[in-house]
Amino acid sequence: MSSTDTRPAVSGRAARHDGASAGLDTLRAGLDALEAGHAQRASFSQVLRAKVLPPILGVVLVVGLWQLACSLHLASPEKLSSPADVWHALTLLWSDGTLFSVIWTSLWRGVTGFVAAVAIGTPIGLIVARVKPIRAAIGPVLTGLQSLPSVAWVPAAVIWLGINNSAMYAVILLGATPSIANGLIAGIDQVPPLFLRAGRTLGANGLRGARHVLLPAALPGYLAGLKQGWAFSWRSLMAAELIASSPDLGIGLGRYLQNQREFSDMPGVLLGIILIFAVGVAIDLLFFSPLERRVLRSRGLLAAR
Amino acid sequence: MTTALAVPKYVPVVETTDDCPAVRLSHVSKAFGRPGAGSVVLDDIDLDVAPGEFVTLLGASGCGKSTLLNLVAGLDEPSAGTIDVPGTRPSLMFQDHALFPWLSAGRNIELALRLAGVERENRRPEAERLLELVRLGGAYRKRVHELSGGMRQRVAMARALAQGSTVLLMDEPFAALDAITRDVLHEEITRIWNERKLTVLFVTHNVREAVRLAQRVVLLSSRPGRIAREWRVDLPHSLRGESAEVAALSTEITEHLRGEIRRHVQH
């Protein structure tokens, strides 16, 4: 295996092939121009028509059907309040000055509990995803916990911790942590092995690999887990507030709902349901959906719609 | 490279002088599965690649060429034999560009520089320089999905060079590209090889590509992978397009490759 240098003389080659390489240059530039993707952003009116209008029409349709059902007296007024009655209940709550305090009490609990669940669920997910024996031991438990309705924890939490905020947080944590951990595990499982190989070739091993390759690659799955984790937090909290009653707890949305039931105040009950729904949807629409879209779009995983 | 990028992962066993090979494989074997019962993928491979040499490894599917490259890259351990790659960890390019979609083109290169130990303030200018080198000067902020297949492979090439090794391993990097794009990239890789004095070990199953690029074509047999034959191609790259000599060599090598494949017909 002789290894004499057979590298061609650069000067001679360049002189001879100026024309050919200029041709290749324009060819390359042409290919680049032809093939590069063109990101298009929808105009304001397109967004309005495609994304804002349909949900508004949906709400109008539901309220319309509701009003129709009331006008036709399909159920007695004690069982089915009209949209106007519910609106009245809302104005009452507003003029009391309690509307925002009721929402805030629950929202604050929900968000703090969720943040704590993220702080606990993330390291659990990371460890379970990467350490095989731990995965074998805890993985099925996590999946099982996810399907256990967190309302089942309320009695236990009340006995362990008393009827107080700690019990609320415990229920949120038990409800949301498994979803968040499972989301991260799924995200990590779906990381293409090629990225990990490329990372190792570049010298990203161990913690550096986790930080620069594994975690960013797993982000879409993790975000999906966070989104579900928030839904579980909110549900668990509402269940806990409905069941556990104590003056120490203040009035959150769940408590408000239960109070109105005790007063047989049907418009109030419907209002409570609508508010719980609205808060859950608002957090998703204002926070998680934009975040998720941004991540997916920057990776080219979202078709421009 | 202008910047010092030395993160020695391989302890240099031999001094890197011009006499020493840039890559040396001695009696390298690789088997998967249980020892004895597993399948032997590579059998007793001896291969020296001189500094600055461009070698293509040619073979049919299942000849273990990718396995061989993984061994040289240090992603896997040989079952027997030794592999010496003096200097820094060799760079590796895949058939799929393997760029990270959560980073822009420029940031992909900066990550490689960072992992190679380049100081923060030098990363951005060096990444820009490397993008210029692959003629994608304006693409720093481009996301991976905004680039065409050929552009992605050029960014991947820049990222591989960012590792600071003079040894570049390429695993069928242009196999998924269309013919015209591949022609352009052949031109790019030979130009960069020339400019940067790289040592290239290039795996392919495409005879034309092998003959067009290499100074030396190494044909591997399949199951187990052994070195079957070697050819030297001494013609300058710029003359190869229209050369009858190169066409004849391609035909000859293709015949041998077909011969290797025919040996596996079950009777």
Task: Walk me through the structure.
The complex is a heterodimer of chains A (305) and B (267). By secondary structure, chain A is mostly helical. Helices cover 78% and strands 0% of the residues of chain A. In chain A, helix 5 runs antiparallel to helix 6, helix 7 crosses helix 8 and helix 11 runs antiparallel to helix 12. In chain A, 30% of the residues are buried. The N terminus of chain A is likely disordered. Chain B has a six-stranded mixed beta sheet with strand order 5-6-7-3-8-9, with helices on both faces. Chain B has a three-stranded antiparallel beta sheet with strand order 2-1-4, covered by helices on one side. In chain B, strand 1 and strand 2 form a beta hairpin. The longest helix of chain B has 19 residues. The N terminus of chain B is likely disordered. At the A-B interface, helix 1, helix 2, helix 9 and helix 10 of A face helix 2, helix 4 and helix 5 of B.
Please render the helix and strand layout as text:
The complex is a heterodimer of chains A (305) and B (267).
Chain A: H1 10-16, H2 18-35, H3 44-71, H4 83-96, H5 99-130, H6 132-147, H7 154-161, H8 165-189, H9 193-202, H10 206-243, H11 253-262, H12 266-298
Helix pairs in contact in A: 4-12, 5-6, 5-8, 5-10, 6-8, 7-8, 8-10, 9-10, 10-11, 10-12, 11-12
Chain B: E1 23-32, E2 39-49, E3 54-58, H1 65-73, E4 80-84, E5 91-93, H2 105-115, H3 120-133, H4 149-162, E6 167-171, H5 179-196, E7 199-204, H6 207-213, E8 216-220, E9 227-232, H7 244-262
Parallel strand pairs in B: 3-7, 3-8, 5-6, 6-7
Antiparallel strand pairs in B: 1-2, 1-4, 8-9
Helix pairs in contact in B: 2-3, 2-4, 3-4, 4-5, 6-7
Provide a short characterization of the protein structure:
Chain A has 305 residues and is mainly α. Chain A has twelve helices and no strands. The model of chain A is unreliable at 1-18 (pLDDT under 50).
Instruction: Please state the CA-atom Rg of chain A, rounded to the nearest Å.
Output: 28 Å
Which two chains form the greatest contact, residue counts included? A-B, 45 and 51 residues
Q: Extract low-pLDDT stretches of chain A.
A: 1-18
Element pattern of chain A in H and E: HHHHHHHHHHHH
Mean pLDDT rating of chain B: 81
Give the termini distance of chain A in whole angstroms: 59 Å
Quantity of strands of chain B, as a count? 9
**Cα distance spanning the termini of chain B:** 54 Å
Per the CATH scheme, the topology name of the largest domain in chain B is Rossmann fold
CATH class of the largest domain in chain A, please? Mainly Alpha
Number of domains of chain A: 2
Major β-sheet profile of chain B: 6 strands, mixed
Q: Using the CA coordinates, give the radius of gyration of chain B.
A: 19 Å
In the CATH scheme, what's the topology name of the largest domain in chain A? MetI-like fold
Question: Count of helices of chain B?
Answer: 7
Structural class computed from helices and strand pairing of chain B? alpha/beta
